[in-house]
Amino acid sequence: MVTLGTLLKDARLVIEKSDALVLLCELVKKDKGWVLTHRSEEVSDDVYGEYRKMVMRRAAGEPVAYITGKKEFYSLDFEVTRDVLIPRPDTEVLAEWAIENSDSQTEVLDICTGSGCLGLTVAYYKQCKVTLVDISEAALGIAKRNAEILGIDAEFVKCDILTDTCSGRYDVIISNPPYVETPMLDSLMPDVRLYEPELALDGGRDGLMFYPVIIKKASSILKDNGKLGVEVGIGQAKAVAETMKENNFENITVLKDLAGIERVVTGCKN
Ligand code: GLN
Question: In the predicted model, is pLDDT for residue 166 greater than 90?
């Protein structure tokens, strides 16, 4: 019989220690503290075999979140599959802004929702109404599952934001659209490039393809004084702020992420 400690030690030969620990915790359904204080605990051959498979997937480059099937975002656990982008800590800046600008009466719309992490986080903490939009049926399936787990009664709309019309009236609209420049897709880190959905990353030739569409649509479906907040890629904040200005948004503000990168542009409907 092998022990948890041996599994961890062996895994560290091929993957990062922190990843090895997360995978083991997921497998034995215990937290890190428990695993680290129970290293001499013996595991069955089945667990050993399963763990080896997980470690091999990680060693081949697959992100931990796709192996465990979940990712923490704003202290909530979201289910993820390869149909959705893995929630990023950078996106918590936009979640925080939306939470600050919402209360229980707020109607929130999350465009390009993916796993649902943005809109569902706001609805969870503010107990408000949320509508989640995505082009991908598979992504909406994941978002629905996450809504169920969090006990949120959200609305789901399958829609190609670039071509379909949007209806409804909203107080707050948030979006983390695809924003990677198409020519840059090939130079993304392999774990992103080979595993995450290109549909959720490809923002067109200049990476800015979605913003004018989202901003124009937002200006027609936001209530008076409604607010729009979008996540942007490195170096895109200025252009996106300009587009908001051209569409009569006011109080345009740029927020930085924890790394000091301009990550979110917000504005208020005139
Ligand atoms: N932050 C992601 C990355 O750089 C991109 C997310 C997006 O396109 N919305 O990999």
Answer: no
